[in-house]
Model the fold of this input.
Amino acid sequence: MSRTLVICKPDAVERGLTGEILYRLERKGLRLVAAELVVIEAETARRHYAEHEARPFFTELVAFITRSPSLVAVVEGPGEDTWQVVRTLMGPTDPAQAPPGTIRGDLGLLLAENLVHGSDSAQSADREVALFFPSLA
Done:
């Protein structure tokens, strides 16, 4: 079993898509372990996106993820690569490049507001779960 972090970003919450996103994860066979609807604090967002700090879009990324509530969740799957299963279900970052059948391909509209975050490695999953759900670390 392995766990990973999923964030239904503000645009997903604002558009009423969190149920659809969680449905797709659960339909795949992943189990919801924890979830909380929160406005992510700026300091937490900066820590979460620390690897992007030097990039020109960092300020906009933090502003977007903190603008309104997000559904932050931990999902669990039977293998060691739950993070990869989630990333595949999400589709590429740019919704215009995401194939039909993926969350972003079916529901996404903009590159900067791409509905969902999923950890990009097992190490990131461990770090991100600990950041948002310390009791699960």
User: Anything to note?
Assistant: The radius of gyration is 14 Å. The chain has a mean pLDDT of 97. The longest strand covers residues 31-38. Strands lie at 2-8, 31-38, 70-77, 116-118.
